[in-house]
Amino acid sequence: MNFFRIPAYLKYLFLVYFAGIGFFTLFRIAFLVAHLYIAKDVPINILADSFLMGFRFDTVVCCYILCLPFVFLAALGFFKINISRLFTVTNIYFVIVFSFSFLVCGIDIPYFTYF
User: Using an 8 Å Cβ cutoff, are 32 and 2 in contact?
Assistant: First the structure.
């Protein structure tokens, strides 16, 4: 039954994906709270649809970020090459790219408040 075992790099990438989605959701909630004076007039089904649309967008952004490390980790895992040292490099990559993405999300809140 070793065939159905999930590789460690896939578990790692799923963990990074869910952490990224969690932080993006926090930014969506902060955006809603910052614009609550406008959102009080919006029906709840429209707000739920907007959160669902935001979740879909955040999933696409996370998948674009995760694509490059997935290709490298999967290729190295396929050829049975030790990838434990590569996790440090991917951690640095994720910190840089997700930090930039979260910065853009944070910038959006005052931008939309102003306009």
Answer: no
Does the predicted model carry a pTM greater than 0.90?
Answer: no
DSSP-derived secondary structure letter, 42: S
The CA R_g of the chain, rounded to the nearest whole Å, is 18
pLDDT digits (tens, 9 = 90+) for 48-105: 999 999 999 999 999 999 999 999 999 988 888 877 778 889 999 999 999 999 999 8
| Separation between Cα atoms, residue 89 and residue 40, nearest integer Å | 45
Instruction: Reduce the DSSP state of residue 9 to 3 states and report it.
Output: helix
